[in-house]
Each structure stands twice: as structure tokens, then as C-alpha cells.
Amino acid sequence: MIHLAVFAVMLTAFANAEEKPLALFNGKDLDGWVIEGDDNAQKNNDGEPSWRVAEGTIVCESRGFGFLRYQEKEFADFVLTVEYKVAKGGNTGIGIRTGPFDPKNSHASRPSYFGYEVQLLDDAGKPAKKTSTASLYRYVAPTENASKPAGEWNTIEITCKGPKISIVLNGKKVLDADQSMMKGLEKKPLKGSICLQLHHTKAEFRSVTVRELRD
To answer: What is the dihedral of CA 53, 124, 66, 129, to 10 degrees?
Structure first.
């Protein structure tokens, strides 16, 4: 028979193991990720890879359009934390609960239609709207625009639990949504891939981690 104290320790260890964040980016290379997109999404104008790792940071830069998708696992309920920065005029995003991107079926397979795109822009100081930073692009506007100016690092935390999605940007909670209560979004998937977006400009990402949530 297992002693109660030992059993309690085992339960605590199990709970802590569940709560430990999973690093999706190892800081060295793009192991676990797949590049998807149009013909220009693989290389930039200098012939270098559009997605690369430099000094522990994922860098994307190209005139192409596409995504870097984590292909090792899909996630249902989770807390995703990402540090990012955009260049002047930058436009990027984070795809959640999405699937593989097919350039031949770009409209339906991109995250903003298949699942959600959390928009990330060089728009500090501008009004919050359905296409601004930390919006669920084209669906839900944040309560405020808490983004920092181009060239500065931002921290975004995206929590998905069932149909509920919340976003914290730079320490400020800026979005709470429940897709089950929004017409047209009720059937959006509750599980899928996580991806980063390449959208004709330069963006950088680091400290990409996921903590899965359990009942």
C-alpha cells in the first residue's frame, strides 16, 4: 500500500509536470517547425532563407506570404507566450488552433479563416480595432492598443480554454472572447496548430512556449 504522504508527493509531481511550459523554439534552429507559404516564402530577396535563427531569435524577412507552423503537436487548451518585435511598418501575427496552409487554397486555409490569427503590427499609439495588434483578426478588437513601438520587444500571452480566448499584451489584459457566443464563430476548431506569420515585412520571435491546461 502506498503511504498517503508518498501518494501526495506523487500527485504534486504529476501536477507540476503538467504545468511545466513546453518550449516550441529551442533557440538554435527551426527543429519541429515547417515553412509554408507562397513561392516567395522560402527565400528573401538576397537568396537567404526567409525564416532563420540568429542569436537565439527566429527572424522572418521576405516579400512573401506564409507561415512557420509547429508540426510536432496540436494544442487544445493552453497558454501560449511569445516575445516578438516588428520592424517599421511591420505586419505579422500568430496563428492558433489552425491547420496546414495551402497556397492553392489560401483563403480558407490561412489561420484567420481556419482558426484565428492574433494580429501583430507596427501600430503603437493607434486606436484599437478588429485589425489592430492583439485583435482576433477581423473578428474581435482588443480593448486597447498596448503594443510598443517598432523595434521594441513585446510579450503576448494567449490563453485558450474551450471556446474562450483571452489575450494579455505587455502585462495588460486586452481581450476576452467566447466564440460560442459569437455568430459565425461557433464552429471554429477547439484544437489545432500554432504558427507564426510572414507577411512581406520583417519580424522577430523568441521565447515561444506553451503550457497546456488540464481539467
So the answer is: 150
